[in-house]
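Thread amino acids onto this structure.
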């Protein structure tokens, strides 16, 4: 079956008109979508307020010194690098005018510290006599022994002759 431009069909050479196609009437029908269901909010539980603990006053048993400890440091001489002058390091610097801590105050502080140490159950550390003697002997001989070791390992082929002179990997 063939269609002609005017809407006719040609079948076996016979031409005829086709009925017009039915026309559709377009009427807009609104599409209704249901509203989403929203759940009611959950009831809010009240948050308990933590009880604030009252601070406990701290009582100290150590007595503060009746008067402040006088500490005066000597005023250092200003460096005169800007002008090119430097202090002479070959001359002993002058002693400060006063003492940093009076002898009585120093003795008082030392006594307080010793009392605190005794209260904690400690004692003054003292090295054992054997350790003291061993350290004294090592101090007397260490320098000479180190020089002998250096001279021995400085010889030609010392690494091959003496295993202690071989470099560590």
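Threaded sequence (169 positions):
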């Amino acid at each position: 079956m063939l269609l002609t431009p005017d809407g006719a069909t040609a079948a076996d050479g016979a031409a005829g008109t086709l009925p017009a196609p039915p026309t559709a009437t377009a009427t807009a029908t609104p599409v209704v979508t249901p509203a989403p269901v929203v759940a009611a909010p959950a009831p809010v539980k009240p948050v308990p307020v933590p009880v604030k603990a009252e601070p406990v006053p701290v009582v100290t048993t150590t007595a503060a010194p009746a008067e402040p400890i006088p500490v005066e440091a000597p005023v250092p001489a200003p460096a005169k690098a800007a002008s090119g002058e430097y202090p002479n390091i070959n001359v002993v610097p002058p002693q400060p005018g006063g003492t940093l801590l009076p002898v009585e105050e120093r003795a008082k502080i030392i006594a307080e510290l010793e009392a605190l140490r005794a209260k904690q159950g400690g004692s003054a550390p003292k090295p054992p006599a054997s350790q003291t003697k061993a350290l004294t002997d090592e101090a007397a001989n260490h320098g000479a022994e180190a020089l002998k070791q250096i001279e021995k390992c400085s010889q030609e082929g010392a690494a091959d002759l003496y295993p202690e002179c071989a470099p560590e990997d």
